[in-house]
Fold this sequence. Notes:
By secondary structure, the chain is of the alpha+beta class.
Amino acid sequence: MLVSAKLSYLRISPRKARLVADLVRGKSVEQAQSILNFTIKRAANPILKLLNSAAANAKNNFHLDPKNMYVARIFVNEGATYKRVMPRARGTANQIQKKTCHINLVLAPKGEKVGMPTRNDFRKKEFAGTEKAKIEKEGKPEAILEKKEKVAKPKAAPKKSKQTAKKSSKSAVKE
């Protein structure tokens, strides 16, 4: 049974939060808590709270023992960027980007093997209306290829270049 918890719009850049997330990935809940307690990074405290929340979800909602669970997945995604302006010399201004991140944490029982989500877990079927999908659906690639061959346009004659046209007009004048 997978138990998850989410933290949205954390006001730390995703790059800095990933440093801390990488420390606890694959560790047991108790080991991850002790690592986060002694990590001197700003993102450590919010991730520790998120881990405790996921452990509480496992205990109260699913009646699982958090001591027998590990951090199966933890990934940090980019959130909205707040844009601010900083006045500079000679009346100009520079833009300041205040980045946010979303953190997803998934706990699993120690015996259960869970990998990272793949692109297909997040992606919709993007080629549903294409010919490739029709071939897979019908199982008749020959029929579709025959239709393409019938519709194929004849090739047009190649055009003469300007130099070839000039040479032919000069030769016509000499005769």
